[in-house]
Amino acid sequence: MSTHRCWVYGDNVNTDVIFPGKYTYTLKTPEDIAAHALEDLDPAFASGAQAGDVIVAGSNWGMGSSREQGVTSIKYSGVNLIIAASFSGLYFRNCINQGVLPIVCPGLNAVVKTGDSIEIDLVNASIMAAGKTFTFPRLSPSVQAIMDAGGLLPMLQKKYS
What is the pTM of this model? Predict the structure, then answer.
């Protein structure tokens, strides 16, 4: 079981809000990309996010374009786990490819607020928050293997090197 500080957001958060499209082809370094994560939704996120923090969101997190910066900007900010009531399909897959754990857990966003701490038990697929226990589906073995390797590219590099 591990404890994490939350950044909480609502429904239908678009990838252009997660990482503004105007920076897509101009920013190259992880530090520069992280500096603009969620700037149009939560200007405090980029300077306040720390390793081990998690995002807790409502439905359809990551809707919009398939640009990977929507995930990498979050990852480069130190957040390697996003919990949402639901994800856009493309965003969910981009999380897996980038080694950011996507957890589908409806209802959690209704009981926590930014700054709250939650406890996550990945072994038992449960989250403790606000005195309640939430469960979530485990990843398939093939997807878990990608996550264990740190993402799709690291898994393939290890497999074929």
Answer: 0.95
